[in-house]
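Job type: complex structure
Entries:
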Amino acid sequence: MSLRKIVDGVEMLALVAIVVFVVLLFRSGSPVEVASDDPALQRGAEIFASRCAGCHGPEGQGYAGRPALNEGRVVAAYPEIEAQIAVVANGRNSMPSFGGRLDESEIEAVVRFTREVL
Amino acid sequence: MSEASEARAAPLPVALSIPVLAGAAVAVIAGVYGRVHDPTGENIVDLFFSSTANMKAWLATLAVALAVFQLVSALKIYGRLLPGRSTPSWLGDVHRLSGTLAFLATLPVAYHCLWSFGYQTGDTRVWVHSLVGCVFYGALTTKVFVVRNHALPGWALPVAGGLVFAVLTAAWATSALWLFTEVGVEL
């Protein structure tokens, strides 16, 4: 097989990859399931998936050097929930502030999710 | 300039506007998707790497290495590198192949960025990375249009190729290089 045909074949593969790429962009995710019926925890799971999991991992296991939150780590680091709420609201170091993007009930919901579900 | 060449030069803005508008459209669509789509925050395949983050960093590094080869081979093909020496006949095909492979290497990276993270503006690095990531695919689209339009002036292709190289390097520097320096180099 000539080099030109290989190149043509790889370019066709790239076109197929573009189509697959676009289709997969519309695949829905599967966030962490919450066993509790508490609507605040359900809402917290949604917020965590959309706002937090990008840095802290989908299950709060940490990602690319960002801290893990799961398995009781946040409770150990912040025994009082108010302290963790303050970090989420005001930000800390490279973590952005969510005070302007989430209201108080949403921040409390996502903080409770990290403490009670992850 | 003769009347005939003036007549050929007249539609240049129109001829340039097609690749530029196509590239702009792709960049904007990527950015709008990233902004509107709810980020899933989920990982995708790791292949044989220790994490999705490391897989992305190494694929992006591969893409940059191939882009460097693209730059060097383009300089050779256009006689700007070692002009006294002949250019191998296969170099054009290998140049095309390296560009396509570089593009393929970026797709899993971009997919995870867009689908899992979305267009984020949390801090300067992330904001710049989101921006140049979208601009990269726009610039690449523009370059593909330019390379197939032989009526464009000779400077159009090097400018488009240089832009692709620059934004890819910027996207890599704000992600893979950051990961390697801040977190560490691991597979």
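Summary: The two ends of chain B are 58 Å apart (CA to CA). Chain B has a mean pLDDT of 87.
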